[in-house]
Amino acid sequence: MSDEKPEIVLPPGATKGVIRDNLEVVCFAVLLIIFFKTFVGQQFTIPSASMRNTLMIGDHLLVNKFLFATPQWAWEEKLFPMRHAERGDIIVFRYPLNRDQDYVKRCVALPGDRVEFKSKRLYVNGQLITGEFEHHVPPGSDQPEPGPWGLSRDAGRTLAEEAAQGGHLPPVRGLWPFLDPVYQGMDRQGQSPFGGPDYIFRDDIGAFTVPAGHLLAIGDNRDNSEDSRYWGFVPIDHLRGRPFMVWWSYREGGNDDTRANVPDGPGDVVKNFVDGARYFFTRTRWERTGTIPR
After folding, report:
1. 3-class SS at 262?
2. Which of 11, 95, 120, 244, CA to CA, is 20 to 30 A from 1?
């Protein structure tokens, strides 16, 4: 009886080699990542304080991208939890003035809703809309405080009141410019939002109806948010998804007020990575990591 082991002969093409094996694994992983980012979820970082304190500067979000998708077949709705955006949803969308940028705000009104802003208060279909999500900076404070903001609670002077208090004539109110259907239909790519922080319509806008195919998106940090009040309605087809988890929260600059550094090239990406690794344990908001934004 021979001790020799039988030679195993593989069929042609079965011996691929180490390089080909590893290359196939890498290609499969890249395709899987592209599929996930395109159809399932994506990572976004909060760079500013417009949604504070619901979302803090440096919050890293995982976003559900298929929730607001338009199904092509009936089986998609049964297989995936798809639905229309609702009032109160935190939404991620393409910025109407630059579709290469993504914004995060709260949807406060739907097509056909009657909306009005009076002395910083939001009214939808005649009802005052407020709650813990709504933040203002009250007199004597430099930090946003949560709601609800009833009519008896002082949310600070409006811009018109500040102008009158300073001895100047209040700005002319006129009509909110985004009510013109011609303006709504324009391709406004590259345009600038109106007015900056002293834009009178931040605090007061006469009653208007949200047009078909659009939403109204407002930041929770009402006194420090450049939102629909400044650049108009959000087309529904601009929706990207809804945040479903803060997977990491990092204090830029070691505090809650420093804006996040949005990478503008490989150098910024490397800098952010080095800073994150260096200060990971001291600047991570451990209490926010793993939370669900609402």
Report:
1. coil
2. 11
Q: Could you give the CA distance from residue 280 to residue 278 in angstroms, rounded to a whole number?
A: 6
Point out the catalytic residue in the list 65, 105, 225, 249: 105
Question: Per CATH, which fold does 42-183+191-283 belong to?
Answer: Umud Fragment, subunit A (2.10.109)
3-state secondary structure 201-259: HHCCEEEEECCCCEEEEECCEHHHCCCHHHHCCEEHHHEEEEEEEEEEEECHHHCCCCC
Residue 105 catalytic? yes
Tens-digit pLDDT profile for residues 137-181: 998 888 899 999 999 999 988 887 877 776 665 555 567 888 887
Catalytic site residue 119? no
CB 286 within 8 A of CB 58: no
Find the catalytic residue in 2, 37, 48, 50. 50
Is the pLDDT score of 7 beyond 80? no
- CB-CB neighbours of 77 under 10 Å: 13
